[in-house]
Amino acid sequence: MAKKETPTGAQESKKAGDQITLSRRKLINILLGSGIATTFGAVLFPIINFLIPPRIREAVQSSVVAGKVGELQPNSGKIFKFGRKPGILVMNQQGEYRAFSAVCTHLECTVQYRSDFKHIWCACHNGHFDLAGKNISGPPPRPLEAFKVDIKGEDIIVSKNL
Amino acid sequence: MPENQKQSIHTKQDASAQAGASQKGVMGWVEDRFNLGGMKSFITHKQVPLHRHSLWYYLGGMTLFFFVVQVTTGILLLFYYRPSAESAFESVQFIMTEVRFGWLIRSIHSWSANLMVAGAFLHLFSVFFMKAYRKPREMTWVSGVIMLFLAMGFGFSGYLLPWNELAFFATKVGTEIVAVVPLVGKALMEFLRGGEDVTGATLTRFFAIHVAILPAIFVSLLGFHLMVVQVQGMSVPPGVEKKEKSLRYMPFFPNFLLRDLLGWIIALGCLVAIAALFPWELGVKADPFASAPAGIKPEWYFVFMFQTLKYIPARLWIVDGEIVGVLGFGLIAAAVIFVPFIHKKTDHPKTNRIFNLIGVIAIIYIIVISAISYMSVE
Fold it and tell me: ipTM of the assembly?
């Protein structure tokens, strides 16, 4: 310990001796350095902010016309646009409409209706969902988000369950 | 110790002896590999002459600064800009309204472009009057003048990119003038336009020219220009050279460079202030089927040429007046490039006076003609 202390002590006393002559230069260097650093900061701040992609404001869509009555046959399905994401409209063998988000809960592939399986299937990693949207086989961890289906005249209206 | 190992130690020692005292840390690491000692001693020995015209030495650096701003803001704009007739205007609108600081970045890009061209013009005239183009600096002048023309090309091609009404018609007129050139004019115009008319094809072409072709040529010329300035040092005007036997000098590094830096910081401050207080307008989206609005004008540095073309009568003897005007400007441009080879006897006071007079007349002509054009529109 004593060995270590001596050189640092000597350095300190040397610094103290030089302080009178160095202080002005040091002060100027600090002022100049922080000025340059601030300038760089002021330039970088807008640049970094510019690069952050702005959020695209989007009207929150809670319902959409997914298709027309008569468009689907029993045991078939179609993909429709729901806002920026795909949805899937299915008519089961009994002729009832079902609608889900078509985004697979595994890795966000778009699912499809397989009439041979009589349920929804994701081609990417062989995920299976039944007609209640429940994940029944394969890697998907959660059921598909289910939507409400209403028929208004000729239109099949799909809306989010709020 | 094996013989070859001994030898390798020797060569290592030689290398470090060559590089001077071996340093530790990052600088030492670099020094051991790249021997920057030569460059370092070059920079520390380089000096800038001091005399009453020394202030003009800063103009080149100032122009360079605006170019750096152009490259930086230009790259940033590329993140959002979409070069097509359908979405160019909307993407610039998006930059200006949605992207954080987008309005500022775009405004700075437009303002800095103009200041860069202005800086280049001033730099050219100051070099012209100080006769800095005389031997051995002829090629510095040539590369500089070509860079000024390229900067004007940058301005012309960049003007169209927001795809607004004013730019659309200015580009129509500007490219139409190219068609006047005998023999190759029509082909050249179609090459520029990417077809017979100014369309989306023109926009993608101008985009490619603006962000790829011109920068590539410009940067190579700039590298050459800066290299020869470093190697040959600053030119001392002939008048000063004769009068002052013992010139005073300032070290380039760090004294001159710090003054440059101070200038750049002030320029940055002014640039941001102008860009924020007078944001560059976007205007109305171009509609190729709408009639041209009043007050179509090119960028200010083209205005004097534009106005001159208006003064030339439609028919001069047996040739079209327009052809005479366009070829005349072509000849003047060539003459400007070759000034160092036209004016060789720079030690004759008489020829110096003639060239100075030509320079003064050129400046007065540009200012007066541009002023007339601006006043006639208002």
Answer: 0.77
Residues A50 and A118 in one domain: no
The percent of residues in chain B predicted with pLDDT above 70, rounded, is 93
Q: What is the CATH number of the domain that holds A130?
A: 2.102.10.10
pLDDT at residue B160 in the model = 95
Cross-chain Cβ contact B99/A50 below 8 Å: yes
Range among A25-39, A75-89, B7-21, B200-214 with highest mean pLDDT value: B200-214
Which DSSP helix (H) or strand (E) runs through B330? helix B321-337
The structure tokens listed for B332 are 């003047």
> Which positions of chain B have pLDDT values less than 50?
1, 6-20
One domain for residues A49 and A75: no
Give the ranges where A52-158 is alpha helix by DSSP (H).
Answer: none
Nearest to B76 among A39, A47, A54 (CB): A47
Number of domains forming the structure of chain A: 2
Tens-place pLDDT, residues B61-113: 999 999 999 999 999 999 999 999 999 999 999 999 999 999 999 999 999 99
Q: Are residues A49 and A68 in the same domain?
A: no
Containing structural domain, residue A17: 1-54
- Which string of b and e fits B309-335 if b means at least 16 CB within 10 Å? beebeeeeeeeebbebbbeeeeeebee
In chain B, beta strands by DSSP E:
47-50, 248-251, 315-316, 319-320
Tell whether A32 is within 8 A of chain B (Cβ): no
User: Could you give all domains of chain B from N- to C-terminal order, each with its CATH number?
Assistant: 48-292 (1.20.810.10)
pLDDT in tens, B125-152: 999 999 999 989 999 999 999 999 999 9
**Which member of B98, B105, B268 has the closest CB to residue A54?**
B98
What angle do helix axes B102-129 and B138-160 make, rounded to 10 degrees?
150
State how far the Cα of B181 lies from the Cα of B176, in Å rounded to an integer.
Answer: 10
Residues A48 and A84 in one domain: no
